[in-house]
Design brief:
single chain; Rossmann fold; 4-stranded mixed β-sheet; about 15% helix; about 30% strand
């Protein structure tokens, strides 16, 4: 994992294939069922003082697998701690649940009946959308639809995995909707949604909450792990609200005054460098070296020394909150939940974590990163004209720290220095321009970001040539966080000795070339650019590594290059994935806004996820009816399945591969799995009884098909969500 202690490409080639297949043990239930039913929410007029409660909405129409994964990820880490009052998908998620009552909305019975409201779906500045437009309409537009509405009931926090809602043009209108609400968490840029719940923003957000992070720090840390090249933002009523922490039942006071504050976090990652795409015929296959628990524990000890963090325990302590009358307010459950360290070693104070499957680690000084005190200090430093830490000095400090502590990876390359910022502005400035927002911001942290570069022998039309590829993806970045200003008493001569990082993310997986029995490098055939582009335009979210939760009316591919993809911490991965990085020009549906973003598509058919489709699903059915669904045969070519003119199978062993088909109702969770009643049909068919509606929002129900490529070293799996209306 570390720079000089374990080399990545210069060690002896391993003949043993590291196959870290994803193996999830899912218990089957005897009867088909929906997500656990929840009571119909009732109107709330003030904080109810009870257990933490969550409400979940996922609605995008064309990204149903991604919204289902985000919903499942959110609940995964809150289950057993928060009370889930509702979880609505697609047509069951309504705009009126967020809309002010005097405009006909029911926000008092929904968003303002829960402490935490989570939403995933399409967005734009100060706007997020819904798959149905007959429950009030299909778009929540701030401030008009929600002016001074959220928070006068039970709601404290709103989190949105949605594109651009908190962009500079959206921050003022969204803040205007707050009425004693504490935080709104979202994105300045586009966000990325994922089809696998353990990769999602929501999953890692919940994981960090359960490990004693504040909501602000959990949102930003999740962005570092689950996103690439994104900018996240949190709006707060007061700086004290940045410290809201449901783990310790500590929250700020409910207030409404004439100003608001925000923090902006650059989640970082370099885009891929240019390579001669049309000359590349095949790329080498790289596997990740085995990483044992003993190695993980040894690395955690070394990291504890580097960051001066005691690590005698790997579980967070149980923190007694309000029951002892020592922490926070009367809101919340009082006793903290068990921490969730599944797959991670975590220091006893929660500042240091290490993924036992990969060696990826994170160090966070909670007092100095994204906290109320750090925001207040940054604003005070601006007023006092404090000396800023320059980008050159920040890089010098980061380089020295990583090198001196043996944490600088051998294939790391400096990328850039960027700043996290904080700001404040009067609430009355609802139409504040981007220039107004920028003028009100001041640096709170300096980030020094490093990329991973890989020199790989590549088969081209001219023979074998060494080409340097950028490794992209959430797991391929190393970041050092430093104070934005020079501490008092520190001089230029003593910067390197006296300024320490307040946070570090790093430790990417160790690589080994995959070789065959004869010791030769294994190569994978690369799709030509035109085929890969056509595949993306035909299948979009079925093939991309990242989906954009934004309503798109047009796409134009502007350029392409090749790279390798590395997943973030907590994700199982055995091979690097060759990918095309497409630069795409998008047109947003409602506003006709034109913007550019990156899309990543596996560059080899071997690394494509298997196709998950139910071609003959009905659009409507009645509760109590018997329904049979049959999945498309994932071992067939796309052309055979009627998808374009692609004469290949999406899967590691293609037509010779073995594919597992699993069916769920509502979300992918063990309790929602449908018992298969047609084992003689290749396990591709399922028969079940259509469920009764849980409440008035259940005008439809969702069936989720999960197809897993059993031969894929990365455990590749796809999810298709079939939404069927109830008669």
């Amino acid at each position: 994992m570390f720079g000089q202690t374990r080399s990545s490409l210069q060690r002896t080639l391993f003949a043993l294939l590291c196959s870290a297949l994803l193996a999830l043990a899912l218990a089957q239930v005897a009867l088909a069922q929906q997500e656990p039913a929840t009571a119909q929410p009732g109107a709330t007029t003030a904080d109810d003082g009870g257990a933490w409660e969550v409400g979940i909405h996922g609605t995008a129409g064309d990204l149903t697998a991604a919204t289902a994964a985000e919903r499942a990820g959110m609940w995964d880490k809150l289950n057993g701690w928060f009370v889930r009052r509702y979880s609505y998908a697609e047509a069951g998620a309504w705009e009126e649940d967020f809309k002010r009552a005097d405009l006909g909305g029911t926000e008092n019975s929904y968003i303002d009946s829960v402490d935490l409201q989570f939403y995933v779906g399409h967005g734009a500045p100060a706007r997020f959308t819904f798959a149905t437009n007959n429950r009030d309409d299909g778009s929540l537009q701030a401030p008009g639809d929600c002016n001074t509405t959220w928070g006068d009931g039970d709601n404290e926090w709103l989190a949105l995995t949605s594109c651009q809602v908190l962009a500079d043009a959206g921050i003022g209108p969204m803040a205007q909707c707050m009425n004693r609400q504490h935080l709104i968490l979202g994105f300045v840029t586009n966000a990325s949604a994922h089809n696998t719940s353990t990769n999602t923003q929501a999953y890692h957000f919940g994981r960090y909450l359960r490990n004693n992070y504040t909501l602000t720090a959990a949102w930003f840390a999740a962005c570092d792990v689950a996103q690439r090249n994104r900018i996240a933002r949190v709006i707060a009523e007061e700086t004290a609200c940045f410290n809201d922490n449901p783990y310790s039942s500590s929250v700020c006071d409910d207030v409404l005054d004439d100003d608001y504050f925000w923090l902006t976090h650059n989640c970082g990652t370099e885009s891929a460098s240019a390579v001669p795409v049309n000359e590349v015929l095949s790329m080498p296959v790289y596997q990740f070296a085995p990483y044992s628990l003993d190695e993980a524990q040894a690395d955690l000890t070394l990291l504890g020394t580097a960051f001066n963090v005691a690590t005698p325990r790997v579980y967070l302590p149980s923190v007694q909150g309000n029951a002892a009358g020592t922490v926070g307010t009367a809101e919340g459950p009082g006793t903290s939940p068990d921490p969730d360290t599944g797959g991670f070693l975590v220091s006893s104070n929660g500042q240091l974590e290490l993924d036992t499957n990969s060696g990826l680690y994170r160090y966070t000084d909670h007092d100095q990163m994204w906290s109320a005190a750090s925001a207040q200090n940054a604003l005070a430093a601006r007023a006092a004209g404090a000396t800023a830490l320059t980008a050159d000095d920040a890089r010098a400090i980061a380089d020295a720290f990583l090198t001196n502590n043996n944490l600088m990876a051998g294939d790391a390359a400096f990328y850039e220095v960027v700043q996290d910022t904080t700001g404040t502005i009067d609430r009355g400035a609802v139409v504040a321009s981007a220039a107004d927002i920028a003028a009100a911001e001041t640096p709170i942290l300096q980030q020094v970001i490093y990329s991973r570069k890989l020199a790989a022998p590549t088969v081209t039309a001219a023979g074998v040539n060494a080409i340097t590829y950028t490794v992209v993806g959430p797991g391929a970045k190393q970041k050092v966080y430093l104070p934005a200003t020079v501490p008092s008493g520190v001089t230029a001569a003593t910067l390197l000795e006296e300024v320490d990082p307040v946070g570090v993310q790093g430790g990417w997986r160790e690589l080994q070339p995959l070789v065959n029995a004869a010791g030769a490098q294994v190569m994978t055939t690369i799709l030509d650019e035109a085929t890969a582009a056509a595949l993306y335009l035909a299948l979009d979210a079925d093939v991309t590594m990242n989906s954009l939760p934004i309503d798109i009316s047009g796409r134009e591919i502007l350029s392409a290059t090749l790279a390798y993809w590395e997943e973030g911490a907590g994700s199982s991965q055995a091979h690097l994935i060759p990918v095309f990085e497409f630069t795409v020009r998008f047109t947003e549906t409602t506003t006709n806004q034109v913007f550019e973003d990156f899309v990543y598509v596996p560059a080899s058919s071997e690394y494509l996820r298997p196709l998950a489709r139910v071609p003959d699903a009905p659009q409507r059915t009645a509760s109590g009816e018997s329904l049979t669904l049959t999945a498309a045969d994932a071992s067939q070519t796309l052309r055979t399945l009627g998808v374009g003119a692609f004469d290949f199978v999406m899967g590691y062993n293609g037509a010779d591969g073995t594919y597992l088909y699993e069916w769920y109702l509502g979300t992918v969770a063990p309790e929602n799995k449908i018992a298969d009643s047609a084992p003689g049909d290749g396990l591709r068919s399922v028969t079940f009884t259509v469920p009764e509606p849980a409440d008035d929002h259940a005008t439809s129900f969702a069936v989720l098909l999960v197809v897993t490529d059993n031969d894929s070293p990365n455990g590749a799996r796809s999810t298709s969500t079939i939404n069927i209306s109830l008669e």
